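Crash report, auto-generated. Payload:
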Amino acid sequence: MARMGMVFDLKACIGCNACVIGCKQENSLPDGVFFTKTLSEEYGVYPAANRVYIPTICNQCEDAPCEKVCPTGATYTREDGIVMVDDAKCIGCSTCAVACPYDMRTQMEAESFLNGLFGDGELTPFEEQGYGRYTPGTVHKCDFCSQRVDVGLDPACVVTCPTNARIFGDLDDPESAPAKMIVERKGRPPLPEKNTKPKVFYVN
Amino acid sequence: MAIADKVFSGDTFKVGYRFQRHWDNSMAYAFFCAEAGAGLFFVSMLLGSVPGMIIGLIPVATGKPYFHLSHMGVPARSWRAALRPDRSWISRGLLGLSALIGFGGLLVLCLMFGSQFGVEANSAAITILKLLAGGFALMTMTYQGFAMSHSSAIAIWNSAVLPLSSFIYSLAAGVTIARLVVSSAESATLVDAQLLLLLSVGIMHLMLLHAAWHGTPGARTSTELLLQTNYAKWFWGLTVAAGIVLPALLVWVAPTSMVASIVACAGMLVGFMAWRILIFKIGLYEPILSMNPFNPMQ
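Recovered output after restart:
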C-alpha cells in the first residue's frame, strides 16, 4: 500500500503563496482559515540580511497525536497514510488542535461562513456550494486533497506551485520523486523530537 | 535569548512561537468547576457532610457541562465524546464525570431519605455507593491533568506534574470550602490538612516551573511568559499571594475565625481560577523547524 507524503524544497520556495490560494479554492475554505501556510522568516543583519520561506501543512503523521486523542473517532488514518477528518463525527472539542504539535488544526467557526471572502456579508455562488462540505464548529485540516488523490491527481497546492517547491508522492516507492529527494538531500521532518513520524519533509 | 527577543507569531504567516488558543477561558472555568466541586464532594463524603456533598455536586453537574458545551463547536453531538474511552482522556473524563454525578447523587439521596426505605447509613449499599462515588470523584479531580499532560504539542503541559497539580488543587479547594460547610469541630480537624495542601500547591508550582525552565525551548518560553511578562502580576498576585500565601497565613494565625476562613476560601479559589486560566494562556506551540528555528538556512 502507498504511503503518501510531501517534500518541501526550501531553496525553491519563493513565498508567492499561490499554494495557499490554490488550497483555499480547492477546499472552499472560509475567510481566515488556512490548511497550508507559507511562513517567512528574516535572518542575518544588513548587508547580509536574508529571508527564507517555510511552507507548512498537516504532516499526516504516522503516529498522529490528533487521532489518538480524538474522543469520537472523527480523525482516522486511511490505508494510504492520509489522516482524515469525518465531519459528521466531529464535535468541535478542539482536543486534536491542542494535541497537534504543528498547530495545523483549525476550528471552522460559524461566523467565518457568514461574511464571505469579499467581506461584504454576501456569499458568492462558489462559496455557497463549497461551504456545504463543512459543519460549522467542527475542526478540520489538510488531507492532501484526498478527493484529488483518489482520482490520481496531485494536491492543489502541489499543482499550483510555480517553482516545484512541493513534491508529492508515495514515500514507500524508492523511485518516487519525494522519496528520492529525501534520500539525496537529507530530508528532515519538522519537530522530530515530538516523535509523531511526519510524512512531510524539508530539504534545503 | 531573552523573552523580549523571541518571536511570537500569533496567527500570522511568520515563523515563531504560537499561542495555544483552542482551549479558551470557558475550558478553564469548566476545569475549575469540576476540580473544585469534585474536591469538595470527596472531602465532604469522607467527613459525612451531606450539605457539603450537595454543594460539591452542583458545579460538577451544572458549571462543568455548561462551560464545556459553550466551548464545543457542535454541542448537539456532544454525546459522541463518550465513544472512545480506550484512547481519549476526554471520553474517560466524560464517563467518570457522569458516573460521579449518578453515584454521587444517588448516595446523597440515600443518605437523606434512605432510612425511610430501609437503607441505613452504615449499610453495605451505602458503603458500595461511597466507594463508587469516591472513586469517580478522584478520577474527576485528576483526569483533566492527564488530558493536558497527554499533549506533547504544548510543552509546558507535557509534564507529569499536571495530573498531580489537578489532584492537589482539587483537594485543597475541597478542604478549604469544606471548612465553611461542615461543623466547627470537623472544621478544626481540617486546619492542618489545609496548611499542608497549600504548601503542597506551592511546591507543585515550583516543581512544574523548574522542570519547564530546564525543559524544551517552548516550555522555558512559557515559564518566561508567566514570570517575566504581563502574566507575572496575575501569577504572583492572584495565584501565589491571594491563592497560597494569604490563605495559609489566615489559617495559621486565626484557625477558628469564620471571617478568616471565608477570606482564605475566597483567596484560594481566586488563585486556583487564575492558575487555571494562566496555564491555558501561556501554552505555546514551538516553531515548526526546531532543528534551527531562527536560522533555518544555515
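Post-recovery validation: The first strand of chain B starts at residue 18 and ends at 19.
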